[in-house]
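Most newcomers find our protein records easier to grasp once they have seen one. The structure tokens are whole numbers drawn from a learned vocabulary of backbone shapes. The record below serves as our worked example for the rest of this section.
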Amino acid sequence: MKTGPVQAASGAVDVNRRSFWLKTLHRWHWISAALSLVALLLFSITGITLNHAAQIESEPHVVNVKETLPASLLRSLKNEPAADAPLPGAVNDWLNDALDVRTAGRKGEWSDADVYVSLPRPGGDAWISIDRESGAIEYERTDRGWIAWLNDLHKGRNTGAAWRWFIDLFAVACLLFAFTGLWLLQLHARQRGKTWPLVVAGLAIPLLVILLFMH
């Protein structure tokens, strides 16, 4: 049993250790909160709009464009590429300049009659088809509105690798925010008697909803 100066020294060590962890956890808690704040708001709001997607009606806006590929470029489509080969670079450049359509890096679906390129995008869809004999181009783009666009950002649908990486990093920041918060709760629990009952309620409420109302 510790007594006298030994007990006092032990108590001082405990106080210093607690002070160190409180400062460290508060620092990481606010840093993770600051990093994830804007995205957390975005994903919270789009969580509501996704949950009520059926009640939020929007009229798709469809744009259809018809054009003809120049003869000098049409010759590059006469070859027999792999079934999923992308369009030739010169064709990509012309489509970008003439129609503001970016097809570089997209896989094509080649048949004897035409080449079709799917251009999925967040909040809508698009595709382009080029007749390999006549060079006739048909391009169609569908826009389902900014709520659909935000919902697709939430799901990472057709958003590309960079956005998917951002979602993963954002999830890590949220986990850091949650775990440092849990640790801080543990350190403050003695002074706040309702801490653990509220934490248990946060677990029990969704669990009860699942058990009682999901069939």
Observations:
- The mean pLDDT is 91.
- The CA atoms of residues 152 and 196 lie 36 Å apart.
- The beta strands are 61-68, 108-110, 114-118, 124-131, 136-143.
- Residues 4-51 form the longest helix (48 residues).
